[in-house]
Amino acid sequence: MKKKQIIAFAVFIVLLLAIFLVWHFNRPAPVQGTKSITLEVIHGDGASFTFPINTDAENLGEALKSADGLISGEDGPYGLMVNTVDGETADWDRDRSWWCLTKGGERVDTGVDSTVISDGEHYEFTYTVG
Predict the structure, then answer these.
(1) Which of 38, 51, 79, 118 is the right S-S partner for 113, CB 3.0 to 4.6 Å?
(2) Are the beta carbons of 63 and 37 closer than 8 angstroms?
(3) How far is CA 130 from the centre of its chain?
(4) Helix intervals (H) in 27-105
(5) CA–CA gap between residue 78 and residue 72 (Å, rounded)
(6) By residue range, what is the domain housing residue 43?
(7) CB neighbours (10 Å) of residue 120?
């Protein structure tokens, strides 16, 4: 019985290692050096403003935090939870509003702190209710 448990544990460790290696070699590589990205902010009233950002940052959160006063939020277990963009605050508890992050019109499935950026990319923050 113990022999089966040891073999099962060894197989589990090997599978875990394989999953880690697949993730490690397939994750987006950070691009170093000066990058120019664009952030478009679509406010609750429909007004849209575009902000060009030049940065050496590897991720979007770092780049946006360095743009003086453009975003703010609360640090959580998954990084920065953005609640204010360009002076407008979204409050889920008040009216079910939040900031939807997209890249070239496609929804971004990572938080701002884990979104790797490359030169020339266009991001959008849209004030969303519901």
Answers:
(1) 79
(2) yes
(3) 20
(4) 60-66, 92-95
(5) 15
(6) 35-129
(7) 9
Distance in angstroms (rounded) separating the CA atoms of residues 41 and 75? 21
Give the residue from 79, 81, 55 showing the smallest Cα distance to 67: 55
| Rounded Cα gap, residues 100 and 127, in angstroms | 6
Q: Report pLDDT digits (tens) over 74-128.
A: 998 889 999 999 999 999 999 999 999 999 999 999 999 999 999 999 999 999 9
Kindly report the CATH number assigned to the domain that includes residue 108. Answer: 2.170.130.30
Helix, strand, or coil here: 119? coil
Q: Are 125 and 39 in contact (CB under 8 A)?
A: yes
Question: What is the tally of structural domains in the chain?
Answer: 1
